[in-house]
Amino acid sequence: MTELLVGTKKGLFLMEGETGSGFEIKARAFAGQPVDFATRDARSGRLLATTTSPFYGPKIFYTDGDPVREWEQAEGVALPEGGDQALERIWVIARGEAKGTLYAGGDPGVLFESRDGGASWEINAGLWEQPSRPQWQPGGGGLCLHSICTWPGDPDKLAVAVSAAGMWMTDDGGRTWRRGNEGLNPRYLPEEALKDENAGRCVHHVERAPRQPERMFMQFHGGVYRSDDAGESWGDIGGGGLPSDFGFPLMVDPSDPDSAYVIPLVADMDRVTPDGRVRVYETRDGGSTWTPRGDGLPAKHAYLTVLRQAFSRAGEGEALELYFGATSGDLFGSPDAGATWSVIAARLPPVFSVVAV
Amino acid sequence: MPPMAVVCVRGPLRKLAGGHAEHECSGATVVELLRALELRHPEMSGWILDERGLIRRHINVFVNGDRGDEATAVASGDRVEVLPAITGG
Known about the structure:
The complex is a heterodimer of chains A (357) and B (89). Chain A is mainly β. Chain A has one domain (76-341): Methylamine Dehydrogenase, Chain H (7 Propeller), CATH 2.130.10. Chain A has one helix and 28 strands. The longest helix of chain A has 4 residues, at 125-128. The longest helix of chain B has 11 residues, at 30-40. In chain B, strand 3 and strand 4 form a beta hairpin. Chain B is an alpha+beta fold. Classes of the chains: A mainly beta (357), B alpha+beta (89). The interface between A and B is medium-sized, with 17 and 19 residues.
């Protein structure tokens, strides 16, 4: 049995089921509100959700009980008072390596840490006080910290990605940070701007290969990249069979450091699936070659947009399950590592995020 | 002594404010009144005012029926309505 937490423009949908025999919507929470992201901490069983009310601002809520009615607001999810910026949105929550630790990333390029399972949060001062921060440039979705890559077994090592302030890494639990953008080629910048390290490095999504943590995969704003040195430098792997190297989500098979999955879109000026066909592309050789995985996905007149947090997985290896949702409200799943797909749900509100538990 | 005015809240704000719609608070301006309300009901922090001390973009405040902002002066007996804007999509 797999649980899917689907954040949408109009609430959180909790689904359960199995691809093949079908999924059911078990509950809907935050009816009418945009739910940017939701996850369940497997260590505690706690559900966490991030909402951005157009009226009341971004919040993190959590529940250990009834997911429809019993949510509590987490404390400390705010920027320092008295500044000239306000928190715009929480994009992602990730499990930390230390007991009870969670991280949350948000706009404007901010990282929060919780040591009590998500009930209270503190801003990461090291990243917040980066001297270069005034020069950071937002992407189209804001200055969003959207990817948080922990290092298995080492709570001091962390890599985060900010659109469009690039990759940032720490080896001391977040006290100090350094950039990791060598090799990235922002084709949208004039050549003379490339030497400016503050000019936009529009990272769209990053995942780490857990069994070989030095290896990371990145979907860039034009370009798919791989790092073999823990994010210090990157090499382009966006050729080899992809119809486009533009897109947002990216996923890996935890059992295979050579694996990655992307869902290409046409281009930054046309953010829909290429040729009206929905296809997930898989590599099993570290990005040298990419193979379309679309059996069961819409193959005609399907112009979908899949957002960066709307791709998730459960299991690994031959039992790898993949799930993604689109802004069309369609939700798809594969029980066999992308070989075959089926519709999990249709006509949901626009899907912002999918997390499989 | 700052003037005492009545702040009126609805919907989720009312729930956060102990379930009461009307709150007598003291303050010389709208933002002072809202800060006083937050102090009394800390759960409301961040819901009306953001970290900059600004009223959130899609919340409207009316003082005795006239649209106000953070700096609008408040007199004793004034009625300050806090309303979510008519927005959506």
